[in-house]
Design a protein that fits this description.
Layout: E1 10-14, H1 24-34, E2 38-41, H2 48-64, E3 69-72, H3 75-80, E4 85-88, H4 95-99, E5 108-113, H5 122-126, E6 129-132, H6 149-159, E7 164-167, H7 175-180, E8 185-188, H8 190-193, H9 198-210
Parallel strand pairs: 1-2, 1-8, 2-3, 3-4, 4-5, 5-6, 6-7, 7-8
The structure holds 4-methyl-5-hydroxyethylthiazole phosphate and magnesium ion.
Length: 211
């Protein structure tokens, strides 16, 4: 039996800037109440100090609700707050290096897949889940390489048993087909962070996933 090291279904990727001027901690908590079961803090334009402060506040909320907090890219922040894990892409610190760090070796390591060739490398092997990045073109992140589409998910699904986290322009209207194509978990930014009611948005997405 393969133990699933990433059994989560609805993944909120959040930054303060994505929350339309609202308090990102409140948005995160509402999202958890709606059904988000894992959160990644992704602060692209913050200093490490500011990223750390935000992570320290957010982990109080994720701990209160017993859900994992994953840190995007920043090893120092992930280690300092004792986050549940770290998510990296092709140009960040590689998963095999992270896996060897004493403070991270038992943590969740997520790795974004932008090329099929990444599936064969050591980085994929040591990761707990793969981010399919992006599934669809999105204004939230424009420096992307591939748009995998539903066919891309199906192809990756046939090549690996790793948990697959789909990200990129996922919303209520396409969530079900992304799951049907083979994703295990959906990750969203704007579908929740830009929603008028983040709790309701999370609840509706979770319902689509569990349908
Ligand atoms: N990685 C690939 S696409 C993306 C990230 C962080 C942004 C997804 O944002 P949205 O608003 O859910 O399309
Ligand atoms: Mg990155």
């Amino acid at each position: 039996m393969i133990l699933n090291s990433f059994p989560y279904k609805l993944y909120l990727v959040i930054s303060e800037a994505d929350c339309m001027g609202r308090n990102f901690l409140q948005v995160a908590e509402q999202a958890i109440l709606g059904g988000v079961d894992v959160i990644q803090l992704r602060e692209k334009n913050s200093s490490t100090e500011s990223f750390l402060q935000k992570a320290q506040k957010l982990i109080e909320i994720t701990d209160k609700h017993s859900i994992p907090l994953i840190i995007n890219d920043n090893v120092e922040v992930a280690e300092h707050v004792n986050a549940a894990g770290i998510h990296v892409g092709n140009t960040d610190a590689p998963p095999d290096f992270l896996r060897q760090r004493p403070l991270l070796h038992q943590k969740i390591i997520g790795y974004s897949i932008e090329y099929l060739s990444q599936l064969d490398n050591e980085q994929t092997l040591v990761s707990d889940y793969l981010g399919i990045s992006p599934v669809f073109r999105t204004d939230t992140k424009t420096d992307t390489i591939t748009e995998w589409g539903l066919e891309g998910i199906k192809t990756i699904r046939q090549l690996t048993e790793k948990p697959l986290v789909a990200i990129g322009h996922i919303h209520n209207g396409n969530a079900r087909e992304v799951i049907d194509a083979g994703a295990d978990c959906l990750a969203v930014v704007s579908a929740i962070c830009s929603a008028q009611d983040p709790q309701k948005a999370a609840y509706q997405l979770k319902n689509e996933i569990l349908k």
